């Protein structure tokens, strides 16, 4: 970049510190940069350091070229080092990030103007609802990147507006009837909305986002029209939605050295190459879920007894909450031999797109769900909490791409090795003879691919969004 040429439009993305957030944020950033925008991704400093340590992003703040534009990173203060490690809990972390992050983020954004990169649009994250207020105070147009499904968006929306009864202290066990959506059994609404849920603070954070929905001019969603047609149509009449997913599909093959991995991904491709098509069970519980050791034991025996090959991501827990790492029963790995591979972290997008993968045992985080669908891979749904339980319902009952193995952590059930074998076999054996799960998944894969190519529904929405930003663009000089 030569000195003092006209700066590209600058979009500033604020990301909640978490793997399930940085992935869609970075994927969106790449698409925006490809259109010639300068994109800054800003997240809490402790998380930025994690990304740097994993080698996913550079240590300096040099913009990385992507397509016709650039991506760069800046971190806001989070005050987490001030917390006493003995009494760290989720609520303290959330409050501390707001307390330190609010002034720090506002300062960072103001600095952009001083440095001739005035921000034309802020794209914020619903798990940091205060960022909408920062945008309002600084009078910068703001959009939200919603990183869950539209169905889940509608559930939170109706809960916030109290338009239908939700479980409460008085009636904790009721089911939920919402417009357009199928009946949601009590344990199928996002678990953060249950009274006294241990992660209820996150439910309150998300509900608080709905009190600020008049600020954003647009709500971008990592979903696609063909997947959630009816609920997208319905909610579009109420809020300014733009489905722009699946963001993980990258038809332009944008190459950059920037990635969002919090841990270095181990190479699994060579091992997968050695297996026949559709013969491997891929197992991952995402970045946060931590199963009990006895459930890990059952899963290990279930995978081994199923007779199929398996690739299992066993991510070590983050230090913060004092959780213990899992141990695998030794005899299981001995018995499985070459049939089993365990890694700490994979490049999941590459794994799911590999022809050897026959099914995905997933915790049903929204990113994992969309990645499974977008790759045409059937699932064994093993949700724990949050929107995972809702996504599991939709994967199994609405999209028809698999079976359900668990009803979530609140059921407090140990899923037995025999049940695990039964579900794996149902998906793997039925599917090898061209079963309906894979057929449905492949249809959705095609629809997903069609949505993101030139002229597709999600592609058009991104184009409209970029045009809107360019109209609002405040240009300075870019050094
Ligand atoms: N992921 C990955 N490698 C792994 C496990 C997960 O790259 O070994 C990625 C996965 O592709 C997804 C993200 O991590 O994009 C997890 O997000 P998700 O919403 O599925 O779950 P969360 O971690 O937020 O619970």
Structural write-up:
The chain is α/β, with parallel strands linked by helices and 479 residues long. It has 2 domains: 266 residues, 3-Layer(aba) Sandwich (Rossmann fold); 180 residues, Rossmann fold (3-Layer(aba) Sandwich), CATH 3.40.50. It has 16 helices and 16 strands. Helix 3 packs parallel to helix 4, helix 5 crosses helix 6 and helix 9 packs parallel to helix 14. It starts with a strand and ends with a strand. The mean pLDDT is 93. The structure holds uridine-5'-diphosphate. Uridine-5'-diphosphate (UDP) binds next to helix 1, helix 11 and helix 12.
Offer a concise description of the structure.
By secondary structure, the protein is α/β, with parallel strands linked by helices.
What keywords describe this structure?
479 residues; alpha/beta; Rossmann fold; 2 domains; eight-stranded mixed beta sheet; six-stranded parallel beta sheet; globular; binds uridine-5'-diphosphate; quercetin 3-O-glucosyltransferase activity; quercetin 7-O-glucosyltransferase activity; glycosyltransferase; transferase
Strand content: 15-25%
Number of helices: 16
Please report the distance between the alpha carbons of the first and last residues: 7 Å
Structural class call reads alpha/beta
Strand count, sense and barrel status of the largest sheet are:
8 strands, mixed
| Envelope shape | globular
Radius of gyration: 22 Å
User: In order across it, which strands form the biggest sheet?
Assistant: 4-5-3-2-6-7-8-9
Instruction: Note poorly predicted spans.
Output: none
CATH homologous superfamily of the largest domain - what is it?
Answer: Glycogen Phosphorylase B
Q: What is the CATH class designation of the largest domain?
A: Alpha Beta
Number of strands: 16
Overall helicity: 25-40%
Mean pLDDT: 93
Supply the number of structural domains.
Answer: 2
Stated plainly, the CATH topology of the largest domain is called: Rossmann fold
